[in-house]
Amino acid sequence: MTATPNHAASPNQAAAPSYDETPLPLRIKATWATGAFGVAILMNGISALALFYFVTVLRIPAAVAGFLIFLSKLYDAVSDPVTGYLSDQTGGTQGRRRPWLFWGALVSAVSFLGVFTVPFVGPWPSMTEGEGLLAALYVLAALLLYTTGYSLFNVPYMAMPAEMTTGYHERSSIHGWRVMFASVGGFLSQSAAGAVLELMGKDWDAHAAVGALGGALILAAMLTAWWGTREAPFHPQTDARVPLRDQVLGFLRNLPFQQILAIKLVQLIGVSASSGGLMFFLVSVIDMPLTRLPLIGGPMVLAVLLGTPLLVRLSKRVGKRWAYACSSVLTGFVGLSWMYAMPGEPVALLALRGFVNGLAFAGNVVFAMSMLTDAMELDYHRTGLRREGMYSALYSFVEKLAAALGPLILGFALAYAGFDPKTPPREVTDEVRQAVLLSIAYIPAAMSVLALLILAFYKLDEPQLRAMREGRLKA
């Protein structure tokens, strides 16, 4: 079945793709990529800092805090698909995605501030039942606002590369720019924010300051992406209406898309578990001040900035799948290396972990998103429909589901091990150490192995896409 596009007049509209590797203007790629800077602060700030904040500052029990984060992600089952569907159906001269970026920027910035300015402080045992309930409801409301803002911005944002270019390797280049900006945002939201918290006392006021600064950076970065892509190519809304059953079957028959979703789900479970557990490991297990976080994050950013262009070149030689596999192997080794970290960890080892993890992070993000865009094109060849928003929504839901599972696992593991935030590191039990290692070592390594197993069955490559474009191979 082929859909007929709605040809609304616009100089940016790409009604007939040419399928070449003509590079996008650098200005468009760079300004689009600034959105990833804001998304990285938003997502990494919540995943790395929120659980620590809820447990050590608000004094919410670890299992309850982890469950609240997980509960908020169930809402994504609604917010992501709805946003994706509506963005696919949006018309106008701005394109289908950009109006959503504007409103998503506003909601995202406000929500980040809200998460780190909860007006209820424990400990819970001393709070009345009503105060404890209000604290839990406020935290849940702030997290729901965060997931809403993330959906409004990130779902349409991640659909844009499929419209901006049809070049097989140019897609990797676009996401290369994205991962470089994301790495800087991740550094600020994890390493730099951790250092600021340490210097300010890791109390309520310190977290509120991080929330305010993070919210301002999120707003500026996301609005830059919205404004800077006003001349980017986009596909118009399609006129055809397809029954819901046929649309669902289309997603189920897209095996490469399912494989990419599965790979990213397991990988991101490892990433979210590691992000949430790192601060606990440094502060409560090996007695290291958070001012050391930049010694990990700095080399990581350096590795991303230097390594991303080289990884894109590598994929042109060996293919996206093999380059992706190398990145996954590096992720597993970095995770396992934390098993040997002890108090007095040498600075050189911290920096080495950060650098290798930066290379792994760059490859994991660049190739996963480039391959996701290939799967979107496969759907277009099969159906004639432009539904990049729905594909991006499903991917985004998996991303946030994984981001919720990490804190949930860590929260219950800490509760089971009897973790007490007031216990000094020298008195931490082996059970607590193993609970934290579960999140930063064992789970990431296991998830990397699973990703490699799934990746072994991925077959969609450049020759197949070229054959489909030329009509020599049935989609």
Protein described:
By secondary structure, this protein is mainly alpha-helical. The protein has a single domain, classed as MFS general substrate transporter like domains (Growth Hormone, Chain: A), CATH 1.20.1250. 74% of the residues lie in helices and 0% in strands. The chain is built from 16 helices and no strands. It has helices at residues 26-56, 62-74, 76-88, 98-115, 129-159, 161-164, 170-200, 204-228, 244-253, 255-285, 293-318, 320-337, 347-383, 388-417, 430-455, 462-469. Helix 4 packs antiparallel against helix 8 and helix 7 packs antiparallel against helix 8. The longest helix is centred in the C-terminal third of the chain and has 37 residues, at 347-383. The protein is globular, with a radius of gyration of 22 Å. The termini are close together.
